[in-house]
Specification:
Length: about 100
């Protein structure tokens, strides 16, 4: 069992014949931030594999069936909270605060 607390955010884009999934994660213990985009099937088997591989403890998206199967707590958020225009500013804050801890 991992000691790290990994939080994942998922953004599915449903299209024929499958689904493209955007995945972003933060590992608080290791101070790692990552992201990926991949194709998945209707059973979200690749999402499940990614969550298990990362040792995810929390996910921000209502894919309740997959999350409960992996034993992951689900945190629901409104779509309006995810705005592209805020990404650069938020990332700048995250990077700046982590750099200042090492000074």
């Amino acid at each position: 069992m991992q000691d790290s607390h990994v939080i994942v955010a998922l953004i599915p884009n449903f299209c024929e014949p499958g689904c493209t999934v955007g995945l972003g994660y933060v590992d608080l213990a290791k101070q790692v931030l990552g992201m990926a985009e991949f194709l998945d099937d209707s059973h979200f088997t690749n999402v499940e594999s990614a969550l298990v591989s990362l040792g995810c403890k929390e996910c921000i998206l209502p894919l309740h069936d997959v999350m409960s199967k992996c034993g992951v707590m689900v945190t629901e958020r409104k779509k309006a909270e995810f705005k592209r225009r805020d990404v650069a500013q938020d990332l700048g804050r995250i990077v700046k605060s982590s750099i200042s801890r090492f000074d």
